[in-house]
Amino acid sequence: MNIFLTLAYLFFIGSLLGWCLELLWRNLMLKKDKWINPGFCTGPYLPIYGFGLCVLYLLASLENYEWITNPFWNKAVLFLAMAVGMTLIEYVAGLFCLKFLKVRLWDYSNLWGNVQGIICPAFSAAWAVLGALYYFLIHPHILEGLEWLSQNLAFSFFIGVFFGVFAVDVAHSAQLVAKLKHFAEEYTVVLAYEEIKAHIRRAHLKNAMQYHFFTPFRTQYPLTVYLREILESKRKSKK
Predict the structure, then answer these.
(1) The pTM is what?
(2) Which residues of 18-55 are buried (b: 16+ CB within 10 A; e: fewer)?
(3) N or C: which end of the chain has fewer CB within 10 A?
(4) What is the mean pLDDT of residues 59-71?
């Protein structure tokens, strides 16, 4: 099976599993009152985890070359490389959204050692732990899944459908972010993506309006109304 189909399969699996992980983390571990659909897209997938799983797979595959003969240090360097790789993905994605789109998808500003609120030592360590968990618990099953896929290439049709839906979703979400960027540049601010979702949800509950989990920006009023409310609330809190 060629590397393109392999990475497409991994991106598909990683995006779906990453969405589930973020959903549970943000709404259970962080004890949020109301469940919010995480991420940039509308559907149940997070592209950053798709890219992350591809990187973890490629790095785990390098172990076959045995660059370091000592098994312990070989694993230690591998997990360190996984942490660095995931941190770089997180930083590049976060920096692009922050500087170009004027949108912050996550915020580590309150954590020690953070860089621009995009990455921090605590989450880099968490990536190392997740890399180890991936290597011992998930990677063997990934290899089995790739073996199964190579014998059942008809399943690649569903991967193609996923990417078709994903492409449409990204195009739709890009239009939304373009509106947010225009507003952010007009008011010289950076908008917090998850904060906007949470604010809209609170407003809908307060006014007894229906809230759409997968389409949180589908509102009765123009989006700018909610954005101005957020800015006004922040101005009042600073006084």
Answers:
(1) 0.91
(2) bbeebbeebbeeeeeeeebbbbbbbbebbbbbbbbbbb
(3) C
(4) 79
